[in-house]
Task: inverse folding
């Protein structure tokens, strides 16, 4: 058996890629999982304000050893920090910000995404694994733009980008961009548009791992994050 | 209304100056409750004793209780208990432990998560005291207590989007009969709920959510129950404080009335019924 001619991105590399697209001055929520890592990869000098659903406005990077504060966590309950200029609000206000269209972007994890941007990320319907919606439905309908970070396929190799989601929806038609460990794909009125692919990947190969039809953008590029994060 | 303003208003109309001075001093010392025995009960204060001759009582507002046992006294079986916190941050674990020892059962718990390990909320679940959990995300930390009860079907789960939980409590606190939200429209969580299209977008009707009791965690309190929080430990505490019939808070420290910066008070004492100091300062 030959090994594939490509190397999937690590979680950090995916987070790095998503962070590069956050514009100067934007107000961004990071969902739990891979999105949380994006806070560490915003280009130096660019000011982005991270919102955390538990009322942290101006979430910072992971604390340095010895500077941990048990009262500052991110949405995934990991210890975090507050940036200079940041503040705290209570839960009802944190979600007012989410629902009320005050967030420019939300980066979310997902189980499945459909070709029309349907998002499924709150339940696997496994009776042994209770559902957990958290703030996902609030973010999905409230943030001005939803971008998803997820592995391109299940561990079994079956696709997670589908014609129709098989799992219960979080919200229909909300995902605008998908960052996977293989590609960057936009959900457009004309279908799924591949903007970037990792080195060694071809559209034909990517298509075998994706259920709906993929279109290659004319200006498509190679997706090459810093190798230092590969470990 | 500031007491001294009230004193000045009454004094200016009906009381001699000397009396006003005495009343004013008294007012500075304590918050005065008007006694029901005084025929001039809208006016009160020491000086009025000489006018109406009635028995007057001075009571200061003091929400402090001496122990966590006293703090949770009277919580009845079948209560809906609002449990503040996000993960393990801002959770009133001392009060939850005291509620366990107090023995109330058949509880409905409203919380963001479902407890950790075998203490606090998780211990209540392990002891079979909880009938139902209304939460957004039960899978947080070591949620084995919840998971075991969930699998054994001894615990009912009502899964509610996180912002909908907080807004339903805010609606209860604000005296509203509910609200329409676009969150959960077109999903399984909206099944059975009234919907309405507003400005071309489907909204789901959500009812207010009121607690019989709120168990809260704050950093500092004064005897009026004014509260300040530490960082993201604020989370659900302020909205739950407003949404319960009986709001009980455990704090790290009690300070004198006036010591809290009025600009920093995140929960005004009017929402708080009982305050107990826990930890090193207890």
Result:
């Amino acid at each position: 058996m030959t090994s594939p001619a490509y190397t999937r991105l690590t979680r950090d590399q995916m987070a790095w890629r998503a962070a590069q697209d956050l514009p100067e001055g934007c107000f961004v929520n990071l969902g739990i999982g891979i999105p949380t890592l994006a806070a560490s990869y915003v280009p130096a000098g660019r000011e982005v304000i991270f919102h955390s659903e538990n009322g942290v406005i101006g979430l910072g990077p992971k604390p340095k050893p010895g500077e941990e504060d048990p009262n500052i966590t991110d949405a995934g309950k990991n210890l975090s920090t507050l940036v200079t200029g940041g503040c705290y609000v209570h839960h009802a206000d944190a979600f007012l910000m989410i629902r009320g269209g005050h967030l420019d972007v939300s980066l979310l994890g997902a189980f499945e995404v459909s070709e029309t941007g349907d998002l499924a990320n709150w339940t696997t319907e496994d009776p042994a694994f209770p559902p957990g919606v958290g703030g996902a439905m609030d973010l999905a309908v409230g943030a001005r733009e939803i971008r998803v970070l997820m592995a391109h396929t299940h561990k079994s190799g079956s696709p997670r980008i589908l014609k129709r989601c098989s799992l219960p929806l979080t919200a229909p038609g909300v995902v605008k961009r998908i960052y996977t460990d293989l590609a960057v794909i936009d959900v457009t009125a004309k279908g799924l548009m591949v903007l970037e692919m990792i080195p060694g990947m071809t559209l034909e190969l990517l298509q075998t791992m994706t259920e709906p039809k993929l279109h290659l953008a004319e200006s498509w590029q190679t997706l090459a994050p810093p190798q230092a994060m590969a470990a | 209304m500031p007491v001294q303003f009230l004193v000045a208003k009454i004094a200016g109309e009906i009381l001699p100056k000397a009396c006003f001075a005495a009343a004013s001093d008294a007012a500075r010392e304590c918050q005065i409750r008007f006694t029901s025995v005084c025929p001039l009960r809208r006016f009160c204060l020491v000086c009025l004793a000489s006018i109406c001759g009635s028995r007057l009582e001075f009571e200061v507002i003091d929400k402090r209780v001496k122990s966590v046992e006293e703090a949770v006294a009277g919580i009845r079986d079948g209560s809906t208990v609002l449990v503040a916190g996000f993960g393990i941050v801002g959770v009133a674990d001392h009060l939850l432990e005291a509620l366990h020892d107090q023995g109330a059962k058949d509880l409905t718990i409203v919380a963001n998560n479902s407890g950790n390990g075998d203490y606090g909320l998780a211990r209540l679940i392990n002891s079979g005291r909880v009938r139902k959990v209304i939460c957004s995300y039960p899978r947080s930390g070591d949620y084995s207590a919840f998971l075991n009860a969930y699998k054994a079907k001894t615990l009912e789960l009502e899964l509610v989007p996180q912002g909908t939980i907080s807004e339903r409590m805010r609606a209860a606190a604000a005296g509203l009969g509910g609200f329409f939200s676009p969150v959960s429209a077109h999903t399984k969580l909206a099944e059975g709920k009234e919907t309405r299209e507003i400005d071309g977008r489907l909204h789901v009707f959500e009812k207010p959510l009121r607690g019989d009791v709120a168990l809260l965690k704050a950093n500092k309190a004064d005897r009026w129950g004014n509260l300040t929080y530490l960082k993201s430990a604020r989370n659900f505490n302020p909205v739950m404080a407003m949404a319960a019939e009986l709001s009980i808070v455990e704090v790290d420290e009690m300070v004198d009335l006036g010591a809290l910066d009025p600009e920093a008070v995140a929960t005004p004492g009017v929402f708080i019924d009982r305050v107990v100091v826990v930890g090193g300062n207890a």
About this structure: The interface with chain B takes residues 52-56, 69-73, 77, 82, 88-92, 94-96, 98-99, 123, 127-138, 141-142, 168-172 of chain A (CB under 8 Å). The two ends of chain A are 24 Å apart (CA to CA).
